[in-house]
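Closing statement on the zinc ion sub-project.
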Amino acid sequence: MEALRQDCIICHNPLSLYGSVSIKNGVMCRDCVKKISPFLSEKALAEMNLEEVQQHLDYRRNNQEMLSKKKMEKLIEGAYSLFVDENREFLALSKRDDLAKENADLIPVKDIRDVEITRSYQADKENNVDINLFITLDNPQLKSIRVRINPFSNIARDSEEYYDTMKKAALIKRTIKKLNGGAPNE
Ligand SMILES: [Zn+2]
């Protein structure tokens, strides 16, 4: 007979009801889930098996170590600020300035394939919109990154805030494309 009580597939601590997340062949506790990149969606995580999750956690540990050796410079302040390292090889998009505490993902500039500005609407609020930056990557750990540029969700379409946010999104996009060595086409 199978035991009813389950342990976390990663750290083997008993699971609490709150904050546990299922992956393909087990369940992860809240403390282990916290170590996952914020850019990995819960849906993507649910489709990963134990080995893939362990590889991701190895990547996150390595990221933390790399981050501790880098001097990150803030290029653009925002809801997600844009940071770049001293060699302009890695960038980070983070809500907070303490990148080490956040373990902000170091995104290899060379892995960036595309940067797009996207808009998302909620079905019942069609006059409101979120403006996002969507980055497509060729990277074993991060396939894509989506960050919301407006600090608070659902801004009014065609408002001053909307145009300011679009300008900010365009500036971040241009800056990333420039770092990436691509043509700054709009
Ligand atoms: Zn755990």
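The chain has a mean pLDDT of 92. With this model delivered, the sub-project is considered complete and its resources will be redirected to Aim 3.
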